[in-house]
Amino acid sequence: MNAGGGLYVLELVLLRKVAVKIGRLGRCEFPAGAFWYVGSARRGLAARIARHTRRSKKLHWHIDYLLARARLVRVWVWPETTLSECELTERLGGERAVPRFGASDCRCPGHLLCARGRALPESLGGVGWALTSPSGRGRAQRG
User: What region does 93 belong to: left with phi over 0, alpha with psi -120 to 50, or beta?
Assistant: First the structure.
């Protein structure tokens, strides 16, 4: 992956229902299950994803608070795409897990979706890494 920008989807799992206080969003309740979080990096896509895979970090973005409680299982990337986070979220479809989650810099309903056992649509392309260890190292797979 180059140092440019792009979009990514973090696929994460909560084994049980949790309530988390998240900045201006306040107390948010998350059901047990799988979620997709759509994010972007204008540059430094690889560095952004590496940050998300680290367990120890300053809590800054909405997703940081959830990742402190969830298991990150897969990362999908779209380097140098013309799509926006909002457009990719809409294409993925599904129920928003928490209104405005991850959308503090736009006007859409939010960037965190309940995956509910769905597979990421192959028509979206992208390259995915299944994370196989806590260090965030994994294997690439097309999807």
Answer: left
d(CA 94, CA 96): 7
Residue at 10: amino acid letter: L
Q: What angle do CA 68, 32, 143 make, to 5 degrees?
A: 80
Residues 6+ apart with CB under 8 A from 77: 1, 6, 7, 8, 45, 49, 126, 127, 128, 129
* Whole-structure pTM value: 0.87
Of 24, 28, 72, 33, give the one whose Cα is nearest residue 51: 72
- pLDDT tens-digit readout, 84-121: 999 999 999 999 999 999 999 899 999 999 998 888 88
Query: How far apart are alpha carbons 93 and 20 in whole angstroms?
Result: 24
**């690439």: which residue's tokens?**
140
The answer to whether 53 touches 39, Cβ cutoff 8 Å, is no
Token pair recorded at residue 4: 């440019």
Residue with tokens 């696929």: 11
